[in-house]
Amino acid sequence: MELLRDGPQAALSVSTAVTTSSSSSWKRPVLPEASQAPPDVMLHVGGCVFALHEEVLRLRWPLYHQLLQTTLFYCAPGNVSSDVGDILTVSEMQQLPVETLALVLCSDRLCIPEGERTLLRCLNKMVFGLDVYNVGADAQLPRPYFGRVDDVTRLYRCVRWCFVPLDDIIPTLRWTPRTLKLYEIIVESLRDPNRSHKRRRPFGWRKFRDAYMTNETNLSEFEIEAGDLNLAPSGAASLTMLNSVLR
């Protein structure tokens, strides 16, 4: 398991304002210089010595990503509740550099129980806090968020929104400040035919639960619902007034 723990760590810091991202952000991976690279791995087989440095570098990260695709959302024991499972998954997600996390979440081979709903739920808990689904109707709207704007929007672009029920999309849109432009991200995804394909069945999965049988949300439904609730960009002022009343 040393391979899984190798590499830089990533952390989130709390945003101090709703409409602006925090000064801190996910840490960027720092790659070693060529002079700092470890020496070749010497493998002794049958009296012959092989230098594996180049091969290890070539295979290391693809294998690392493949392991993350199959284990990231299955890091919790099978007998724990979904809330505990989400906490463990979010904790693992926070340990990854944002580039690595985005690459894994975009993969067609990503294994997610219950599909995109689980992915969106874990992203919301990582961005808005683990208690985001327990807040009441009078909670602050929009909510403070964690991380830089570019990092947060990059992760939300990994969601295949057409497979997320509208009832899960609308609360996320309520929590999200206009700075993150989540409305535009969702519309862009729903318009893109390349993001309407279900994730492929992972290799070796015989008991695969297909969470992508039908498209849950289309563009027209989303635009109508968001417009009626004043969650579209043109209704941002109304949402701000609602926030003032709730406060």
UniProtKB/TrEMBL annotation:
The species is Phytophthora aleatoria
Q: Domain of life, per the record?
A: Eukaryota
Protein name, per record: BTB domain-containing protein
